[in-house]
Specification:
4-stranded mixed beta sheet, mainly beta, single chain, about 150 residues, globular
Length: about 150
């Protein structure tokens, strides 16, 4: 029979398998989110900037910012414009388009064979081949991007 300490230790050291949310079909206009990161499926020819050196799609170095696009052939580029599926919050009504983009615009993920957006604290998201424009959650109190 196990002691209470052994039972508690086995519970606290157990690593749960992360939940995986699988999208089997995507088309432009569809949106999914993982925490403070939103994935907008866009057309294949979506505008993109220069290629980034990392597949992390959120800004920062904390555990909460570890939203990473993983998969064969995945490339991540700077974003150039907000997608049509982006809904401009009311609290941004007096801001210019450039100010809104500075808060919300993230990178573009190009995944010819699909990808999984992983995160240590959120369910992973598995998507088929697609191009995704990332946007971020905004904080109306600070008029800044939310960061985990």
């Amino acid at each position: 029979m196990k002691t209470i300490e052994e039972v508690v230790s086995s519970i606290t050291t157990h690593k749960a398998e992360p939940e995986v949310r699988t999208l089997r079909r995507v088309e432009p206009g569809m949106v999914a989110h993982q925490g403070d990161v939103y994935l907008h499926v866009v057309p294949q020819d979506w505008a993109r900037g220069k290629q980034r050196g990392s597949t992390q799609v959120a800004v920062g170095t904390t555990i909460g910012s570890r939203h990473v696009a993983e998969g064969e052939g995945v490339e991540v580029f700077d974003g150039k414009k907000l997608p049509p599926s982006f809904v401009r919050p009311q609290w941004c009504a007096d801001m210019s388009d450039a100010q809104v983009a500075e808060i919300f615009l993230g990178p573009v993920v190009v995944a010819p064979d699909g990808f999984t957006l992983t995160h240590p604290e959120h369910a992973h998201h598995k998507l088929p081949a697609c191009v995704v424009q990332v946007t971020y959650q905004g904080d109306p109190r600070t008029a800044r991007r939310v960061q985990d």
